[in-house]
Amino acid sequence: VYDDLGGDDSLAKVFGISVFPTGLVDFRGLFSNGNQSATVACIEGLVQESSESYPSATSFEAGVKVDGSTLTVDVSVLSVVSEPAMKLAVVLVENGIVKDQKFNGNASDYPEIDFNNYVHDHVVRVSPTGCTGESFPVEAGKISSKSYSVELEQSWDASKLEAIIFTLRPFPASPVQAVSRAKYTNKAGAYVDNVVSVKAGESVSYDFQ
Questions:
Q1: C-alpha distance across the termini of the chain, in Å
Q2: ∠ at Cα 132 (67, 36), nearest 5°?
Q3: Buried b vs exposed e over 163-174: b needs ≥16 C-beta within 10 Å?
Q4: Which has more confidence, 125 or 2?
Q5: CA dist list (Å): 69 to 34, 151, 156
Q6: Taking residues 110-132, what's their average pLDDT?
Q7: How far apart are alpha carbons 184 and 177 in whole angstroms?
Q8: Cβ within 8 Å of residue 112, ≥6 positions away
């Protein structure tokens, strides 16, 4: 994700990231771009840890509509647990932006990449909830819903917009942190319970991931 929010709401600011690229899994585990095999092992370890120790308790039904200069995100969440401290986040990103790509190495080593016409995906445009979400209490077996509207800027291509929607759940009293190379964090105050992406003009039905 290319973070275009800036200020105190940027992911880099929230998580204290100063070295790029830096990876982040479920708002719980940070990892740097070091040795390739070690980095892959770290990512795989964090993903497995999420699956085994932090199973999703929420699922989504969501749709994204564009009407003129207004984009609307409708979200319904079905939870299998009651959690008064659950949060919901919506982040609008744009894909397919062709711009220069900054590169500090020797570009000639990568002849297959055109750094002057690089395709950038998942560029953050706006977040009506903030990247760490807003209060969204849920009850087990019940559906909770909310809608968000965003005014689109003229420079954005509405056909390439996508909403990233995720729930955040408070950490357990004794969080599992077993991946040795990961740098664990709780700076968001919660971890990502589940996430779904919905492109403009599309919708998704309930699915636990």
A1: 20
A2: 105
A3: bbbbbbbebeee
A4: 125
A5: 42, 6, 10
A6: 93
A7: 7
A8: none
CA distance 89 to 16: 20
Looking at the DSSP bridge assignments, the partners of residue 161 are 94
Task: Tell which residue, 73, 79, 182, has the closest CA to residue 128.
Answer: 73
| Cβ atoms 181, 35 nearer than 8 A | no
Of 112, 99, 154, 124, the residue nearest 10 (C-alpha): 124
pTM: 0.91
Tell me: pLDDT of 121 over 90: yes
Q: Is 135 exposed, middle or buried (0-12, 13-18, 19+ CB in 10 A)?
A: exposed
Residue located via tokens 């085994």 = 52
89-120 pLDDT per residue, tens: 999 999 999 999 888 788 888 899 999 999 99
| Single-letter code of the amino acid located at 192 | V
Which H/E stretch holds residue 77?
A: strand 70-79
Nearest to 46 by CA among 34, 28, 32: 28
**Lookup: tokens for 130:** 């903030």
pLDDT grade, residue 208 (50/70/90)?
low
User: HEC string of 142-195?
Assistant: CEEEEEEEEECCCCCCHHHEEEEEEEEECCCCCCCCCCCCCEECCCCCCEEEEE
Mean pLDDT over each residue of the chain, to the nearest integer: 92
